[in-house]
Amino acid sequence: MNAHSSLVEQSMPRFDLIVIGSGPSGRRAAIQAAKLGKQVLVVERNPRVGGVSVHTGTIPSKALRETVLNLTGWRERGFYGSAYRVKKDISAADLWQRGAKILEHEVDVLEHQFARNRVTTVQGEARFLSPNRIELIRSREAEPEHYEADFFVIACGTRPYRPTHVPFDGKTVFDSDEILKLETLPRSLTVVGAGVIGVEYATIFSALEIAVTLVEPRASFLDFIDRELIEEFMHELRDRNVSLRLGSEVKAVEFDGAGRPVCRIASGRDVTSDMLLYAAGRMGATEGLNLAAAGLETDHRGRLTVDAKTLQTKVPHIYAAGDVIGFPSLASTSMEQGRLAACHAFGLAPQAAPEHFPYGIYAVPEMSTVGMSEEEVIQRKIPYECGIARFRETSRGHIMGLQSGMMKMIFSKKTRRLLGVHIIGEGATELIHIGQAVMALKGTIDYFMESTFNYPTLAEAYKIASLDAWNRAFAPTAAAPEVPDMPEAIEDAA
């Protein structure tokens, strides 16, 4: 090694932790490590921090949903009729104004968090040179910069999957990032892919009274959600004239004589619309990281495999968190993954993650679920009973003009424990946390029977659903099994 190289080695910045990506998992890992007194560097490829969550994913799509519901008067139509509108003529520009303000706020908050915790941030493309060293390229003209660290967290997120047979043009054929740059609203839209992203966008545009066709190669969708909830959801979509093409494999996307995208289905039944959104999967954004130099490799979708408890990759000092490690790919779980990775790296032993965490599907109507579905309970052969509450049965539901929405609760007949809560309708993603808390504390049907809920609220649905289950399985007239003393003698429901 010559004298110049030796000097470079000595002057190379070294950190306790380098985080690649500033989305939910990256920011939480960085801030957790900084609070432990560590020197942290966050590398973000985009001009501003926040990652996919802030710029093209979670925040923009939820802001779009809220904007659509407000401008269309969706929530008031139960009282004023389906023709009711807050704004008669809604343009694409109307949809993005709220999102732009929210984005600025989110970025400002995140930059302040990093500054307050003395986290160093740099913008540029990172690539590994060795397991402990990265190269940072800020621009084509700039000289590469080198950084070393004792630990790394790869939190680079994902990008839309763009197959070669789909002619993306950013005008009539979009991926889920490009749809947020839409300049005009179509009269009809085809959405390919009935995953969480596809379902959310399909229903949001349907609320704008755009004719939507949802195409999915599988015979079912959102299989991790209780089937009864999905049946209710499908009924609502069909009632709004959303066309569901399940079991329809897309062979090609072409253009007709008028320049409109035509979705060629294997069955021979094509779908033509003004615009097409392809939302069938995402890829880990790892292609430029040169992971081989760090001793890592990805699967066919660019995702990394980690230890479920520690978030370590096969190279122990390199962790990965967030969407880049795959399921469940939720902002909420990604945050916890980032925190757990940082804690483990620096010798803390945080409590194990709870067994159950909530899912939120921000469709129209929204859905949320925690715990076991009825299908899972049956598979595990647990004696159970369900209780159902319709939002229209609550006084609050009447006040809000709700004509749909339901809550389903599942209880063990042996221990009376709450096994799962599944909600569709207004406020579902907020209401679910009551059920989550009771499940985490191993609560039983008795909690809901004996507790008082604010009146009038949609939370009353918990009492209605529990009473429904009680009358079916636990009432004195029912042949209920003997219940052990509580709480010490309560067995695990499984």
From TrEMBL:
<dbReference type="InterPro" id="IPR016156">
    <property type="entry name" value="FAD/NAD-linked_Rdtase_dimer_sf"/>
</dbReference>
<dbReference type="GO" id="GO:0006103">
    <property type="term" value="P:2-oxoglutarate metabolic process"/>
</dbReference>
<dbReference type="InterPro" id="IPR036188">
    <property type="entry name" value="FAD/NAD-bd_sf"/>
</dbReference>
<dbReference type="InterPro" id="IPR004099">
    <property type="entry name" value="Pyr_nucl-diS_OxRdtase_dimer"/>
</dbReference>
<dbReference type="GO" id="GO:0003957">
    <property type="term" value="F:NAD(P)+ transhydrogenase (Si-specific) activity"/>
</dbReference>
<keyword id="KW-0285">Flavoprotein</keyword>
<dbReference type="Pfam" id="PF02852">
    <property type="entry name" value="Pyr_redox_dim"/>
</dbReference>
<dbReference type="InterPro" id="IPR001100">
    <property type="entry name" value="Pyr_nuc-diS_OxRdtase"/>
</dbReference>
<dbReference type="GO" id="GO:0004148">
    <property type="term" value="F:dihydrolipoyl dehydrogenase (NADH) activity"/>
</dbReference>
<feature type="domain" description="FAD/NAD(P)-binding">
    <location>
        <begin position="15"/>
        <end position="338"/>
    </location>
</feature>
<feature type="binding site">
    <location>
        <position position="216"/>
    </location>
    <ligand>
        <name>NAD(+)</name>
    </ligand>
</feature>
<keyword id="KW-0274">FAD</keyword>
<dbReference type="GO" id="GO:0050660">
    <property type="term" value="F:flavin adenine dinucleotide binding"/>
</dbReference>
<keyword id="KW-0547">Nucleotide-binding</keyword>
<feature type="binding site">
    <location>
        <position position="62"/>
    </location>
    <ligand>
        <name>FAD</name>
    </ligand>
</feature>
<keyword id="KW-0560">Oxidoreductase</keyword>
<keyword id="KW-0521">NADP</keyword>
<keyword id="KW-0520">NAD</keyword>
<protein>
    <recommendedName>
        <fullName>Soluble pyridine nucleotide transhydrogenase</fullName>
        <ecNumber>1.6.1.1</ecNumber>
    </recommendedName>
</protein>
<comment type="similarity">
    <text>Belongs to the class-I pyridine nucleotide-disulfide oxidoreductase family.</text>
</comment>
<feature type="binding site">
    <location>
        <position position="323"/>
    </location>
    <ligand>
        <name>FAD</name>
    </ligand>
</feature>
<feature type="domain" description="Pyridine nucleotide-disulphide oxidoreductase dimerisation">
    <location>
        <begin position="358"/>
        <end position="463"/>
    </location>
</feature>
<dbReference type="InterPro" id="IPR050151">
    <property type="entry name" value="Class-I_Pyr_Nuc-Dis_Oxidored"/>
</dbReference>
<keyword id="KW-0963">Cytoplasm</keyword>
<dbReference type="GO" id="GO:0005829">
    <property type="term" value="C:cytosol"/>
</dbReference>
<dbReference type="InterPro" id="IPR023753">
    <property type="entry name" value="FAD/NAD-binding_dom"/>
</dbReference>
<feature type="binding site">
    <location>
        <begin position="193"/>
        <end position="200"/>
    </location>
    <ligand>
        <name>NAD(+)</name>
    </ligand>
</feature>
<dbReference type="Pfam" id="PF07992">
    <property type="entry name" value="Pyr_redox_2"/>
</dbReference>
<feature type="binding site">
    <location>
        <position position="281"/>
    </location>
    <ligand>
        <name>NAD(+)</name>
    </ligand>
</feature>
<comment type="function">
    <text>Conversion of NADPH, generated by peripheral catabolic pathways, to NADH, which can enter the respiratory chain for energy generation.</text>
</comment>
